[in-house]
Design goal:
Keywords: Coiled coil
GO biological process, one term: DNA transposition
Largest sheet: none
Number of helices: 4
GO molecular function: DNA binding; transposase activity
Low-confidence stretches: none
Radius of gyration: 27 Å
Number of strands: 0
Protein name: IS3 family transposase OrfA
Pfam families: HTH_Tnp_1
CATH topology of the largest domain: Arc Repressor Mutant, subunit A
């Protein structure tokens, strides 16, 4: 499986978006060695971030969503571990007789 290319620097993306919004859409992909789809996606995301488009998530919202998904994953793992530990401790207590105090 080929290694994925590293992400383009934000400055590079911003410059491409700026040029695309200025009207240079046809030659951008060839000149800067990116695909037309990539340029369209960057322009779309820029419009979402600027608030001129309302049909998707902004970059900040995407970052927050990714952070929350990671947090949910960790919390589910912790819950599963605690559940298994509770079951194990409950089973340990079944086999031993309880001490009674004669108070």
């Amino acid at each position: 499986m080929p290694k994925p290319k590293p992400p383009y620097p934000p400055e590079f993306r911003a410059r491409i978006v700026e040029l695309a919004k200025a009207g240079r859409t046809s030659s951008l992909a060839e000149e800067f060695h990116v695909t037309d789809t990539t340029v369209r996606n960057w322009v779309r995301q820029s419009e979402l971030d600027e608030g001129t488009r309302q049909d998707g998530l902004t970059s900040d919202e995407k970052q927050e969503l990714a952070r929350l998904r990671r947090e949910v994953k960790v919390l589910r793992e912790e819950r599963d571990i605690l559940s298994k530990a509770a079951a194990w401790f409950a089973q340990e207590g079944v086999g031993t007789p309880k001490k009674r105090s004669d108070s």
